[in-house]
Amino acid sequence: MDLLSATLTLILIMDPLGNIPMFLSILNKIPDENRRRKILIRELLLALLVLLIFLFLGRHLLQWLNLQPQSLRIGGGIVLFLIAIKMIFPPPSGGIMGQFPEGEPLLVPLAVPLLAGPSTLAMLILLSSNAPEKWISWLLSVMSIGCRPFQAIRTLRRDRRGS
Fold this sequence. Notes:
By secondary structure, the protein is mainly alpha-helical.
């Protein structure tokens, strides 16, 4: 797997377009727009930090737990299957993710599991376990995904000032 295919795979697993309504519904409860922007940036940075931690330390976590990459693949597939079942048959208690806690989000549910979810983390662990010599490609892939939202925020801010 090369840089482009790893980046595209991570983008597809993270589902950024599918996360937009969740982010909007959670951040809509915060009345101050500047505070919303700060929360969004904080959550994006926390998600990026979690992704980088799992990219570099995930292989060692697998060794410490004495797990094989095949078991992680099976577990990641089961998690994706359960998420798909919840999407098809949502629980009556409140959507796919259940009820959101009141107040300002911190790490949960925006950074983890929406951005840095179990499938994304499993994919990063598998990438670093299967080809540790390509760590620079995996780092560039994660950083390119992690920096895109900040570019979008800067563009939106510039467009608002211009109009």
